[in-house]
Design goal:
With about 475 residues, this protein is of the alpha/beta class. Helices cover about 50% and strands about 10% of the residues.
């Protein structure tokens, strides 16, 4: 691997909060290794967006976020050796590279009886148990830990089935949500029983209720904080949000996460009061409309910035919605509340979509962000190995083209300009992977960005004229 790939340039952040994330991530990885050495706490492999952080923390279990570790390997441009090891086991590079990286790492660690050499930030400690959830949409999240269990046969798995609710858009989801709620409650109670058995602890439901309440307050604070990015100029872009997502996705149900977003909220308000944006001269406001980022290429956000483009909003890792707007039934049972909150988040856009003819919830979310954040163009990223998350992105762009004009106004005749009431909304789809750097060409990516910026500038000049 080339030297420039081994040592990527550090991405410039627009906020102090985003710059503080590196040490936070390093500490919770180092912390799990420290806990393993001390033997005082149980460790659990687990996945992002499984809605169970409160349960783990209430039972004093430390999560090891396996997708996060794979992302760190990608960001450090140190994933290739783990991917190759997984391939040597007969696994195809076309599979989820997060999973391949984790499986390759686990096999190597167990073969050596110690961490692989120079493992990023000390590496992943061997877990006491593993909690998986494919959510009926991500096969790797259902099979990944089963594959790793070949090398750790003494480590049990609990597969928690949290359905990703997809309802018929012409029906009211409230007619069937009670069924889904009962099912999710049963799955969560099963998780509690599994963790109780593995830890020898009994659930303290008063403590669990406190943690659920802390998460609710953190959700509301995150929503309020991210809404500050509507300001013109935008005080924080998606490049920084790919860092500030860490406490949202990996530290919920902790005071540390709540305090982090208090600090970010204060910082953004101060920047807005000073009229200070993510970039000095904001010309174009873009939306990251979908797709996980290429973790080895986060500097591409700085390249967009250098062209006068800011990203006020993104759909990726925006994992919260205001609790008070979710229409959640009242309950004192924290498990039932967790289930209602899961359903509330995934059905948040259903009512709005039903009120717009032809709209779908995912597209409705994009439309709202485009209007609320004054978006000039949409950027998406298709990662070849993450078909679950990235499938449908092109379809969403096509749906938007029915509402917004997909070509620059300068390409239309004067008669056509008069006929069209749609405003221009150019889109750009980048292609590479989440952590497999062999899929990425910086030259090709920058050329695509340049052409996209030229289109945005043509539209800007046309409006000015």
């Amino acid at each position: 691997m080339a030297e420039e790939q081994k040592k990527p340039k550090k991405r410039m952040t627009a906020t102090q909060a985003a710059a503080s994330i590196g040490p936070m991530v390093k500490e919770f990885i180092v912390g799990t290794n420290r806990a393993r050495a001390e033997g005082k706490k149980k460790l659990a492999y687990t996945f992002i967006v499984c809605h169970h952080e409160e349960i783990l923390h209430a039972l004093d279990v430390l999560p090891i976020w396996t997708e996060n570790f794979a992302g760190i390997c990608g960001a450090k441009r140190d994933a290739e050796r783990f991917l190759q090891r997984a391939e040597s086991l007969g696994l195809s590079r076309s599979l989820c590279t997060y999973a391949l990286c984790g499986i390759g790492f686990d096999q190597w660690r167990e073969e050596l009886g110690t961490m692989p050499p120079e493992a990023p930030w000390g590496g992943m400690a061997k877990p006491d148990f593993m909690i998986s959830s494919g959510q009926i949409l991500c096969d790797p999240r259902a099979k990944w830990y089963q594959a790793s269990q070949q090398f750790m046969p003494d480590v049990p798995i609990y597969n928690m089935d949290l359905p990703y609710p997809l309802f018929e858009k012409n029906l009211d989801h409230r007619e069937v949500r009670d069924y889904y709620h009962k099912y999710i409650v049963k799955e969560l109670r099963g998780l509690v029983a599994f963790v109780e058995e593995r830890t020898g602890r009994k659930m303290d439901y008063d403590r669990l209720r406190e943690l659920v309440d802390l998460s609710d307050r953190t959700w509301n604070l995150i929503h309020e904080t991210y809404e500050l990015r509507r300001a013109v100029p935008c005080p924080m872009g998606t490049g920084d949000a790919m860092n500030t997502m860490v406490p949202m996705c990996f530290k919920m149900a902790t005071q540390e996460a709540y305090d982090f977003f208090l600090g970010l909220n204060k910082e953004l308000k101060e920047k807005i009061a000073r009229g200070e944006g993510e970039i000095e001269n904001e010309k174009y406001r873009l939306m990251w409309g979908g797709g996980l980022p290429a973790w080895f290429a986060l500097n591409d956000f700085n390249y967009f910035n250098s062209k006068g483009a800011s990203f006020p909003v993104e759909t990726t890792y925006r994992m919260v919605a205001p609790i008070h707007e979710m229409d959640l039934p009242e309950t004192r049972d924290p498990i039932e509340h967790l289930a209602w909150r899961w359903l509330g988040y995934f059905t948040f856009w259903y009512d709005k979509a039903r009120n717009r003819p032809g709209s779908e919830p995912d597209v409705e979310r994009l439309i709202n962000y485009i209007e609320d954040y004054k978006i000039d163009g949409v950027v998406m990223h298709e990662a070849f190995s993450c078909r679950t998350w990235h499938v449908g992105l092109i379809w969403q762009i096509h749906q938007l083209s029915k509402i917004y004009k997909p070509i620059p106004v300068l390409m239309l005749t004067k008669d056509r300009q008069k006929e069209s009431s749609k405003r221009e909304l150019p889109s750009l789809i980048l292609e590479s992977d989440i952590i497999d750097i062999t899929s990425y060409s910086e030259v090709d990516t920058r050329n695509k960005i340049d052409a996209f910026i030229e289109t945005l500038e043509s539209i800007r000049q046309s409006k000015a004229a």
